[in-house]
User: Which sequence fits this backbone?
């Protein structure tokens, strides 16, 4: 009997096996930690790159607007460099007519189609073009089209 009692006592003092987390859970935790660490390291560089891409797109849009404005002004200069253009402008602005012509004024026409407006293009006045990803990435990277630094 002593043998039975001593073995049962020895069994009660034996260290219990601790339950450990499965190896797969350790792997998932390690992967998540690595991804989080990489995001913390990569985010500033990715943000700077994204802001520079959006700023470049905004500046390209401003350049295109300036080129269009310059082309419109040059076409107006070319038109006014001809004798017909000078006569037309003198008739419009000063009401001058040639001998034998009659001046007629018509009221009620929409003047917005006859007058060309060459607005000045100010830096930052043309927004960056919207892309399929700009609605998602602009808030993530803190880009706003009103600033050149994105903050």
Assistant:
């Amino acid at each position: 009997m002593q043998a039975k009692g001593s073995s049962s006592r020895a069994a009660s003092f034996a260290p219990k096996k601790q339950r450990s987390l499965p190896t797969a859970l350790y792997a998932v935790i390690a992967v998540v930690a690595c991804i989080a660490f990489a995001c913390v390291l990569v985010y500033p560089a990715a943000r700077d790159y994204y802001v520079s891409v959006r700023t470049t797109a905004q500046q390209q849009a401003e350049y295109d607007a300036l080129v269009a404005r310059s082309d419109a002004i040059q076409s107006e200069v070319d038109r006014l460099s001809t004798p017909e253009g000078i006569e037309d402008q003198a008739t419009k602005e000063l009401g001058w007519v040639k001998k034998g012509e009659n001046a007629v004024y018509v009221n009620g026409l929409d003047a917005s189609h006859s007058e060309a407006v060459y607005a000045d293009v100010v830096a930052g006045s043309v927004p960056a073009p919207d892309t399929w990803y700009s609605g998602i990435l602009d808030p993530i990277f803190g880009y706003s089209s009103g600033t050149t630094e994105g903050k």
Notes: DSSP finds four helices and no strands in the chain.
